[in-house]
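Moderator note: this is an archived Q&A kept for reference. The question asked for a predicted structure of one protein chain; the sequence and the answer are reproduced below.
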Amino acid sequence: MTCEKECNQGRDCDCPRTTDRATVIVVTLLLLAIVSMGFGVWKLLNGNAGQDCAVEVRFQDSTATYIGKTV
């Protein structure tokens, strides 16, 4: 950001840079939030897909085990 004070011979004006810091912090937090949400959605869709599973069903006189993969 530009300094609004008048400076002699191009010296540093010691302008407050709080808006620059705030912008960097907000942008960093937004990027972290977007990355973490994207990872969460990816993990939700792909995290458990294709794992082996088995379901045992009991009937009156027998049992059956269904073996497959999660969706």
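Archived answer notes: Residues 15-69 form one domain.
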